[in-house]
């Protein structure tokens, strides 16, 4: 994870995505075509049509206002506009200089003009950012802290604290960035200390494996060495995996019990038992995360790889792609399983026999196929079928298969879609032309009535903004596994969210759901489930125990036969 330079990286990565030309867009369509699981095989055609509609403008929003200053000023560090080639050592020397020139002007220097001073200050700040980025080297080393003893961890901590104090004393403007780095360090060390079920995989298994299913099949589990400690049964816990050589090894939670085992946990939101709510909602425990994060956070991953399975966790879209895309993982189709728990403690689950998350080039598009559920335990196919909330086109608009991933700063959903190639003049004002359905959603009202309509549309027309989480949205969704867990009342029911706009004109909409919902379980949009989990394993995986029996619930628990046979 690019920790020290995350603020800079998110802005530049977002700019590069938005500036991508039609050739790159159509290249992404080739990747989509490789995993086109649709019945009519029209995924490629749909993708190419979207490219033609989009370029050369941004489909969901304007050019980035935050970069306009870069076009006006030569250097603008606070908008992350820094030229290459700045002599960082001139402003932030690694070693203390033996001698300084006379102040305020160095020997032989001419009296600077106001513009020169302003430029020098900007270069000073840019150089500071560059120096801070050196902390990344130290933070990369922290990934190895989980494999060292306590003395090793403390040595790394002392090294970090020394550098932290040095940089912190340089400028008050660095407080926020340094605080974020410090919190990340605490999270990393905390994870190492709390996960006592960390499996020493290099020692036991002869090296890091590709996924949790690979660990499950290792001969170690049937050896005498595993007899007394683990009764010769593959164990759930925290392992280190490396699906492909072009991605660094990373830690995951391996579930070796559910439905025969072999699962890699890629997402966890909420708690599995109601009595854990107080501890989970305690901010000091850091078990409950904020899911309203930016693109770079969702790309890299966040949360705790906790052995107890009660801490929020997102593996990261890049890692999910490496695990699920056959072109990356050695040609293995993956099964995607989703588990839900309601506030009565009832468990539900369902599986998609094929689940793929494409690369960032395709905006991490989700493709699933062949849903299956078991009787009264089935969650229903919300991703593939959607839900007819209000009649008409709602069912088609809430299907999430083939949808791109969206965050509040990278809107890829299909709500309030517009293009600079398709504009109109209304009462002397140039505004987008919207579809009939977007007009019904009042997207046109926003454009016509607000002077800053582009900014206002980023709120009104963004599913990620409305739902408070990143996910694969259409217009918006029948299932949001990253939605908010409402446990305050202990029932899961909550008041639907109100979206309002102000600025010379007022608009309000009161019916937005932002909870952890799964509509095909028919609890309503104002019901938030207590827990959701996503896990993947190879489609052809077969465990040692029979997976076709009743031991299909989380952690290998047995289903009730009557409920399993319920239609």
Automatic annotation (TrEMBL):
Organism of origin: Oikopleura dioica (Tunicate)
Family annotation (Gene3D superfamilies): 1.20.5.50, Gamma Fibrinogen, chain A, domain 1
Domain Fibrinogen C-terminal: 203-540
Family matches, as InterPro entries: FIB_ANG-like (IPR037579), Fibrinogen-like_C (IPR036056), Fibrinogen_a/b/g_C_1 (IPR014716), Fibrinogen_a/b/g_C_dom (IPR002181)
UniProt GO BP: positive regulation of heterotypic cell-cell adhesion
One Pfam short name: Fibrinogen_C
One GO cellular component term: fibrinogen complex
Keywords associated with the record: Disulfide bond, Glycoprotein, Secreted
Domain of life: Eukaryota
Keyword Disulfide bond part of the UniProt annotation: yes
GO molecular function: extracellular matrix structural constituent; protein-macromolecule adaptor activity
Stored PANTHER family: FIBRINOGEN ALPHA CHAIN, FIBRINOGEN C-TERMINAL DOMAIN-CONTAINING PROTEIN
Cellular compartments annotated: Secreted
Protein's UniProt keywords contain Disulfide bond: yes
Coiled coil: none
Protein name: Fibrinogen C-terminal domain-containing protein
């Amino acid at each position: 994870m690019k920790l020290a330079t995350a603020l800079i990286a998110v802005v530049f990565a977002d700019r590069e995505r938005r500036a991508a030309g039609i050739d790159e867009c159509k290249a992404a369509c080739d990747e989509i075509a490789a995993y086109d699981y649709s019945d009519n095989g029209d995924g490629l055609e749909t993708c190419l049509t979207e490219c033609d509609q989009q370029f050369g403008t941004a489909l969901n929003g304007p050019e980035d206002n935050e970069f306009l200053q870069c076009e006006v000023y030569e250097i603008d560090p606070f908008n992350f506009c820094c030229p290459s080639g700045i002599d960082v050592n001139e402003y932030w020397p690694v070693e203390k200089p033996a001698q300084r020139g006379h102040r305020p002007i160095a020997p032989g220097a001419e009296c600077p003009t106001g513009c020169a001073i302003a430029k020098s200050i900007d270069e000073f700040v840019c150089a500071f950012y560059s120096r801070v980025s050196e902390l990344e080297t130290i933070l990369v080393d922290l990934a190895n802290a989980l494999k060292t003893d306590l003395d090793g961890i403390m040595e790394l901590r002392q090294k970090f604290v020394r550098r932290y104090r040095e940089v912190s004393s340089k400028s008050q403007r660095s407080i926020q960035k340094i605080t974020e780095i410090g919190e990340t360090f605490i999270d990393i060390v905390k994870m190492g200390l709390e996960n006592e079920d960390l499996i020493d995989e290099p020692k036991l298994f002869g090296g890091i494996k590709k996924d949790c299913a690979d660990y499950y099949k290792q001969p170690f589990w049937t050896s005498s060495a595993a007899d007394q400690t683990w009764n010769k049964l593959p164990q759930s816990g925290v392992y280190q995996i490396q699906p492909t050589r072009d991605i660094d090894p990373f830690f995951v939670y391996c579930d070796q019990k559910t439905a025969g085992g072999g699962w890699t946990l890629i997402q966890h939101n909420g708690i599995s038992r109601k009595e854990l709510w107080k501890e989970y909602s305690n901010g000091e425990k850091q078990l409950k995360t904020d899911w309203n994060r930016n693109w770079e956070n969702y790309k890299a991953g966040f949360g705790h790889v906790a052995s107890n399975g009660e801490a929020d966790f997102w593996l990261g879209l890049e890692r999910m792609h490496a695990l699920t895309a056959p072109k990356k993982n050695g040609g293995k189709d993956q099964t995607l399983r989703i588990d839900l728990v309601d506030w009565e403690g009832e468990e539900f689950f369902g599986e998609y026999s094929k689940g793929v998350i494409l690369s960032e080039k395709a905006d991490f598009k989700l493709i699933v196929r062949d849903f299956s559920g078991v009787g009264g335990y089935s969650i229903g196919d919300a991703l593939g079928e959607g839900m007819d909330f209000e009649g008409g086109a709602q069912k088609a608009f809430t299907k999430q298969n083939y949808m791109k991933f969206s965050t509040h700063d990278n809107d890829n959903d299909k709500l309030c879609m517009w293009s600079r190639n398709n504009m109109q003049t209304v009462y002397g004002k140039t505004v987008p032309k919207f579809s009939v359905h977007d007009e019904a959603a009042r997207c046109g009202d926003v454009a016509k009535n607000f002077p800053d309509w582009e900014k206002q549309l980023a709120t009104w027309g963004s599913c990620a903004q409305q739902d408070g989480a990143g996910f694969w949205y259409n217009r918006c969704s029948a299932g949001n596994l990253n939605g908010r867990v409402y446990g305050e009342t202990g029932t899961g029911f909550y008041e639907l969210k109100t979206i309002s706009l102000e600025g010379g004109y007022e608009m309000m909409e009161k019916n937005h759901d932002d909870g952890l919902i799964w509509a095909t379980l028919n609890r309503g949009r104002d019901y938030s489930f207590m827990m959701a989990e996503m896990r993947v394993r190879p489609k052809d995986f077969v465990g040692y125990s029979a997976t076709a029996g009743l031991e299909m619930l989380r952690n290998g628990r047995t289903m009730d036969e009557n409920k399993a046979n319920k239609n």
